Amino acid sequence: MMGKHAQNRLLAYSTPVVLIGLLVLFVIAVTLTGDKALGRMAAETLIRVVLVVGLWIFVGNSGVVSFGHAGYMAIGAYCSAWLTLKPQMKSLFLPDLPPWLAQAEWPVLPAAIVSGLLAALVALISGAAILRLSGIAASIATFAFLAIVNTVYSNWEGVTGATSSVVGLARYVDQWVALAWASVAIIAANLYANSASGLALRATREDEVAASASGINMYRHRLLSLVVSGFFTGVSGALLGHSIGVLNPDSFYLGITFISLAMLVIGGIGSLSGAVVGVLSLSLLIETLVRLEQGMTIGASEIALPSGAQEILIGVVMILVLILRPAGLLAGKELSFQFVSQRSPSKQSSTN
Fold first, then answer.
1. Cβ(149)–Cβ(66) under 8 Å?
2. Do 74 and 115 meet the contact criterion of CB atoms below 8 Å apart?
3. pLDDT digits (tens, 9 = 90+) for 231-252
4. Which terminus of the chain is less hemmed in, N or C, by CB atoms within 10 Å?
5. CA pair distance 57, 114, nearest whole angstrom
6. Which of 225, 254, 263, 223 lies closest to 74, judged by CA?
7. Sequence-distant (≥ 6) Cβ neighbours of residue 38 within 8 angstroms
8. What does the alpha-carbon distance between residue 330 and residue 102 come to, in Å, rounded to a whole number?
9. Which of 222, 230, 290, 258 shows the shortest CA–CA distance to 50?
């Protein structure tokens, strides 16, 4: 008979299957409506899944809140533009690119992978300095990194277009492409969370002193998680650029930073399932409120919210969730084949 430890491991590895199944049902339901606007919303939602799952790989396992991941997203987005834009477009918008890059015209998949690798490399270099700090000091340092990236990309006119938008990106990312990348991100996040490094990192999150006394190298494991996290965050930037076809540095600054953190906190920062559920919940709420602002006909009556009500109501919902469910909607639990919430990996590891 399978032991309890083996059962727990099997349940933990079944989580991505359940989450990917949930996303597949979401995409199928949206596709069957035939609504192109809903299709775009689904693609944007799944790109957010890649972003927030990438963020969770670092924040959820280390306990260090990062305000800098939008910087890695920007790096991935612009790298993909450098590699995939037609040379004529690059000579017009990005005249200072080196010749080998100005003439490059890569296929979209290799470009997305290389964009993620570049973001991971920058995460390695920046994390080598930032992660020597801990707690609030590390979080402030990540925000400083974001400000640096935004300043550079907003002023490096010949290479990034500065504050002028870079247009002409191939819009190949639909809900199915985004679903494939979201699935890869979920599988990678689950594998890392249940690896020796992930378990060690969560041990440092729970008690740094005890983990250090046990011989765990907190710095090394945090840096590894940041590199993996940076890869998927960079890929999400490339996907976003090829979804809307336009890049601007302000698209990767405070707005996307706070909405991604809000999704993570609302779903539950303690579990991968919480990250995915948080994205789905808040994205569906945003879409509903946007449509209500535009006016919806129900029966013989038309319902329309006042302009600007969307932001207010989202804020109210977030406050209510934080009051009623301070640990998030899933409270650190994971979804599994049993279709009931399991304890988060950190709690499981403490009982095994």
1. no
2. no
3. 999 999 999 999 999 999 999 9
4. N
5. 20
6. 254
7. 30, 287
8. 47
9. 230
* CB distance 69 to 54 below 8 Å: yes
Q: Say if residue 224 is exposed, middle or buried (CB neighbours under 10 Å; 0-12, 13-18, 19+).
A: buried
* Residue 343 confidence class, pLDDT cut points 50, 70, 90: very low
What would the pLDDT profile of 86-126 be if each residue is shown by its tens digit?
999 999 889 999 999 999 999 999 999 999 999 999 999 99
* Sequence-distant (≥ 6) Cβ neighbours of residue 319 within 8 angstroms: none
Place of tokens 């260090």: 64
The encoded tokens of residue 132 equal 């020597």
Locus of tokens 């940041």: 226
Closest residue by Cα to residue 119 from 257, 227, 253:
227
Three-state secondary structure string covering the chain: CCCHHHHHHHHHHHHHHHHHHHHHHHHHHHHHHCCHHHHHHHHHHHHHHHHHHHHHHHHHHHCCCCCCHHHHHHHHHHHHHHHHCCHHHHHHHCCCCCHHHHCCCCCHHHHHHHHHHHHHHHHHHHHHHHCCCCHHHHHHHHHHHHHHHHHHHHHCHHHHCCCCCEECCCCCCCHHHHHHHHHHHHHHHHHHHCCHHHHHHHHHHHCHHHHHHCCCCHHHHHHHHHHHHHHHHHHHHHHHHHHHCEECHHHHCHHHHHHHHHHHHHHCCCCHHHHHHHHHHHHHHHHHHHHHHHCEEECCEEECCCCCHHHHHHHHHHHHHHHHCCCCCCCCCEECCCCCEECCHHHHHHHC
Residues making up the chain, counted from first to last: 352
Phi first, then psi: what are they for 49, rounded to 5°? -60, -45
Nearest-angstrom CA–CA distance, 94 and 169: 13
> How would you class 156 by CB atoms within 10 Å of its CB: exposed for 0-12, middle for 13-18, buried for 19 or more?
middle
